[in-house]
Write a structure and sequence with these properties.
Layout lengths: L1 H11 L1 E12 L4 E7 L12 E5 L10 E4 L2 E4 L4 E9 L3 H6 L7 E8 L12 E6 L4 H12 L7 E7 L8 H6 L3 E6 L6 E2 L2 H11 L4 E5 L2 H13 L4 E4 L15 E3 L7 E3 L6 E3 L6
Parallel strand pairs: 8-9, 8-12, 9-10, 10-11, 12-13
Antiparallel strand pairs: 1-2, 1-7, 2-6, 3-4, 3-7, 5-6, 13-16, 14-15
């Protein structure tokens, strides 16, 4: 089973040394980095990720996973990807020093992606902090499929106003954006799941897409069960290889306590009903 999973991943992904297109600071600790990639990235889907390798003696040995924030295009083919990241440790600090023209190792695109039903109406996107990253890619994909984005609502939570990102992008697409902060510095004070719960009662969605910290995903999953709303979650967890070989990113199945999924190979996007979060 594992060998078949690895074989499928190898058929769909590329391992390259690629050039940095830009690395822009957009907040006190947030950056967007553009990376030139293989044309195969035009087939990448929202929710998938890449593994970045720094390739020098001062860098960590293992690659690090990052969600694809959006595709970088110059024509009808994908020319690369943009990653939204926050400085939280040694790797992301090192990444912030990269400049245009520098070379970085890229493995991807990897993992499962958000599924968009052919007939879908009202959509909720729920994000916490940097969990907003794949939602920009998802919104673009929804737009290309002809989904009425005026019926889509974004719920974005952060510790403070500095953690609320991409709001203007969603506004431009005609989406409703609702925000919360832990300290009340922007939006409503409190947890983002509080306003999601109220919104579900008022306008039940056809689908909820969520990405963020585990406690947030757990709360979202619980409320979608209560209101019987389909939900897909993108989980945040440490990954060592990104291909299902090391088995380090195990996630417990809700229906079978003896079964574990692996976030990199089976995910990172899952139907919320099958996970024990």
């Amino acid at each position: 089973m594992l060998s078949l999973t690895l074989q499928k991943i190898k058929q769909d992904m590329f391992q390259e040394k690629n050039q940095i297109l830009w690395n822009k600071k957009i907040g006190p600790s947030y950056y967007r980095i553009g990376i030139k990639c293989h044309r195969g990235y035009s087939d990448a889907q929202p929710g998938q990720f890449i593994m970045l390798g720094f390739g020098d003696q001062t860098a960590p040995l293992l690659r690090r996973p990052f969600s694809i924030h959006r595709l970088v295009t110059t024509d009808s083919h994908g020319q690369g990807v943009e990653i939204l990241y926050k400085i939280v440790g040694t790797c992301t600090k090192k990444l912030s020093f990269y400049k245009k023209g520098d070379i970085i190792g890229v493995l991807g695109p990897l993992g499962s992606h958000f599924l968009i039903p052919d007939t879908i109406g009202r959509i909720f996107m729920v994000a916490g902090g940097v969990g907003i990253a794949p939602m920009v890619f998802l919104a673009s994909s929804l737009q290309k499929k002809g989904v009425d984005l005026s019926k889509c609502m974004v719920f974005n939570g952060g510790r403070s106003k500095d953690d609320l990102l991409c709001g203007d992008h969603f506004f431009t697409l005609g989406m409703s954006v609702n925000t919360t902060t832990d300290d009340g510095s922007a939006g409503k004070k409190g947890f983002v799941t509080d306003i999601v719960s109220a919104a579900i009662k008022e306008h039940r969605p056809d689908m909820i897409y969520a990405c963020g910290p585990t406690p947030m995903l757990k709360a979202v999953t619980q409320m979608t069960e209560i209101y019987a709303v389909p939900c897909q979650v993108s989980i945040e967890t440490m990954m060592a290889c990104g291909m299902g070989a090391c088995l380090g990113c195990a996630v417990e199945s809700r229906k079978d306590s003896d079964r574990y999924f692996h976030a990199c190979a089976d995910g990172p996007v899952f139907n919320a009903s099958i996970l024990k979060i």
